[in-house]
Design a protein that fits this description.
Elements: E1 8-10, E2 13-15, E3 22-27, H1 57-62, H2 77-89, E4 92-97, H3 107-117, E5 120-123, H4 135-138, H5 142-149
Parallel strand pairs: 3-4, 4-5
Antiparallel strand pairs: 1-2
Helix pairs in contact: 2-3
Family: Belongs to the metallo-dependent hydrolases superfamily. Phosphotriesterase family.
Cofactor: a divalent metal cation
Catalytic activity: N-acetyl-L-leucine + H2O = L-leucine + acetate; N-acetyl-L-valine + H2O = L-valine + acetate; N-acetyl-L-methionine + H2O = L-methionine + acetate; N-acetyl-L-isoleucine + H2O = L-isoleucine + acetate
């Protein structure tokens, strides 16, 4: 454990704190948030199926959890990569990615994004709210939960 002292674990390995640069501390680069879907207001059901376009932006901002596609960030890797490149160009150095088990955490994609953009990604660990826990997760022992998180 002494080799970890004073280091930061990123998805690509250990770095020194001096390598962090400007850091965003609570981001989601890839996730599925369908667990939080909320039915749209009566008479607006069709809008929850429309493509995400500027002409629907007002409705989407008012009903972010009622639009199914809006809850599927894991399908937007190209857009996320582009945003990370903008962040890096503006002086950003690191991101703490807080997507956890239960909302489609994908460490392989996080590694790929970090490699392709040069942004350090620090992956959070844990489990999201009870409604997202599978029966397998609920049956885990404390030791098994610890192993899964590490």
């Amino acid at each position: 454990m002494s080799s970890l002292k004073g280091k930061i674990q990123t998805v690509l390995g250990l770095i020194d704190p001096s390598q962090l640069g400007y850091t965003m501390t609570h981001e989601h680069l890839t996730m599925g948030f369908s667990c939080c879907y909320y039915p749209p207001p009566p008479g607006q059901e069709a809008l929850s199926e429309k493509p995400i376009e500027m002409k629907h932006l007002f409705w989407l901002k008012q009903n972010p959890y009622s639009h199914k596609e809006n809850l599927l960030l894991y399908e937007e890797t190209d857009a996320v990569r582009e945003e990370l490149l903008h962040y890096k160009a503006a002086g950003g150095g690191s991101i703490v990615e807080n997507t956890t088990t239960g909302i489609m955490r994908d460490v392989k994609i996080l590694k790929q994004l970090s490699e392709e953009t040069g942004v350090h990604v620090i992956a959070g660990a844990g489990f999201y709210v009870d409604a997202t826990h599978s029966s397998e997760t609920k049956a885990m022992s404390v030791e098994q939960v610890g192993i899964k998180m590490v």
